[in-house]
Specification:
487 residues; Growth Hormone, Chain: A; 2 domains; 18 helices
């Protein structure tokens, strides 16, 4: 971070009178991420299951509409710059956070109502022209949802920078990430309580009533958590007005600048392609895991949401073990390689678990895949830090954040498309007969197998990444790219 210009006549730092964050305040700020975890469960853990399994919406359409909110990631640039320069309700960050999280809650409920309209139209006329306007409206609502999420999450990330210093920032981010996992588990608990009365043969009206109730209760809880997490924090702890310049954060990176940085040298380009393949391979199952549990394993909606808890707990365990034992012993590149190979094996186990049709086997396989994800997450982050020029660290990491968000959206759509392709082949080989839900196992296995192959490709790409070569010539290449962009 660039230090402000201070006259030599001043012995004290201009930030000396601002209190430092204590552990309780860090945990309090982490509660906001807990709310985001709950919302991610509702969209990727409940809505996609209802659309694909209960309403029989094509997986590509269901995944594509939900993924629209992830493609709104470039809006982070605008909302970040707005929070820098134009206070809202008297605050640079808090006003945008509160406005954004309320918009997230309202938009999520409206999206559910449109989902029911899609189901009614399909029940009346089948998949056709009567359904298309509702699908378009759902995509539009998820675009607004993505904008609202950017309006809340980007100023919140900026707030974390404003209220922390170099010593406390990594600890604050670590707590926030852990609370995100806690939020996913909390979302599972809330969902299980609200949807527990639903049986496998529940009518659509019963499902609609319970899910509507869930999308009122959970977003309301998220709004309360956001307010409790941030109220009074900015006024007491923010150092924004004392700092003469701000670092290049993710919210200050344009998409054009991000691409320039990520392709500035051979090694940055290689690492960018590696991260792209890794993200696509890691997140393709985002929109299909719960429908897999419903169609192949006969799990209820409340039960399939528990897959998210298994994945989240596995990820958290994987990160802790990797940071404490794996990276210090075998190094960063070997850690990522190990994570990719372990993830590929776990994806094959998830496929083969369908043969048993035992939910406990699927849950175990998903937990193991979560541990692999934890290994990959931490390994990729520490490797990324080695592949970062200190002078443009914030810019480079911000560019990676935008790239990963776009890749995750693409992965969600790709997963739905591959699933539809697999289901098409199943129906083709079945002839004119009716296809039972349990017969769609090969279609789901195709998605998991493509992911496993992607993990192997990521390993091959990683072998070509050379940290020494990056450190030798990337600094000049990135600086030249940024200067040419300014010109």
């Amino acid at each position: 971070m660039t230090s402000p210009d201070v006259s030599s006549s001043f012995a004290k730092s201009p930030e000396a009178d601002i209190p430092n964050l204590n552990l309780f305040t860090m945990l309090r700020l982490g509660v906001f991420n807990m709310g985001l975890g709950i919302m991610s469960l509702l969209t990727l853990g409940v809505l996609n299951r209802i659309m694909i399994d209960e309403l029989r919406v094509p997986a590509l359409i269901a995944a594509g509409t939900i993924a629209v909110h992830q493609f709104m990631a470039p809006a982070r640039v605008w909302f970040g710059q707005m929070s820098d320069s134009r206070p809202l309700f008297g605050y640079h960050r808090s006003g945008y956070i509160w406005m954004g999280i309320v918009a997230v809650a309202v938009t999520s409920f409206l999206a559910v109502q449109v989902v029911w309209r899609i189901g009614s139209a399909m029940e009346t006329t089948g998949w056709g022209s009567q359904v298309y306007p509702w699908v378009g409206l759902l995509a539009l609502l998820f675009a607004v949802y993505g904008l609202a999420l950017s309006a809340a999450s980007t100023p919140f990330t900026a707030l974390l920078v404003d209220v922390s210093d170099e010593q406390s920032r990594s600890r604050l981010v670590g707590i926030g990430w852990a609370m995100l996992m806690v939020g996913i588990v909390s979302g599972v608990i809330i969902t299980s309580i609200v949807l527990r009365p639903l049986s496998l043969d529940a009518s659509l009206d019963q499902v609609r009533s319970s899910v509507n109730q869930l999308f009122i209760i959970a977003p309301a809880i998220v709004c309360v958590l956001a307010l409790l997490s941030t109220f009074g924090i900015e006024r007491k702890y923010s150092r924004l007005s004392r700092r003469s310049s701000l670092t290049d954060r993710e919210d200050r990176i344009t998409l054009k600048q991000a691409l320039k940085i990520l392709t500035a040298s051979r090694q940055t380009g290689l690492f960018f392609v590696f991260l792209l393949v890794l993200s696509l391979s890691l997140f393709m199952q985002d929109a299909i895991l719960e429908p897999y549990g419903g169609e192949v394993f006969g799990m209820r909606i409340a039960e399939t949401t528990q897959l998210n808890a298994a994945f989240g707990m596995g990820t958290l365990l994987g990160i802790i073990l990797t940071g404490m034992f794996v990276v210090p012993r075998i190094g960063k590149k070997r850690t990522v390689t190990l994570g990719c190979l372990w993830a590929a094996l776990c994806l094959l186990l998830i496929s083969f678990s369908g043969v048993t049709a035992a939910p406990s086997v699927l849950m175990t396989a998903v937990f193991c895949f979560g541990t692999a994800s934890g290994v990959l997450t931490l390994g990729a982050i520490v490797l990324m830090l080695d592949l970062t020029v200190a002078e443009t660290a914030g810019t480079f990491i911000g560019a990676w954040g935008l790239a990963q968000a776009m890749a995750r959206g693409s992965a969600t759509v790709l997963g739905g498309g591959v699933l539809d392709l697999g289901k098409g082949f199943v129906r083709l080989f079945n002839g004119a007969g009716t296809v039972a839900e349990s017969q769609y196992l090969p279609a789901y296995a195709l998605v998991f197998t493509v992911q496993a192959i992607g993990m192997i490709v990521a390993v091959l790409l990683l072998r070509r990444v050379n940290i020494q070569e990056f450190q030798a010539n990337a600094k000049a290449a990135i600086t030249a790219a940024l200067e040419s962009d300014m010109d």
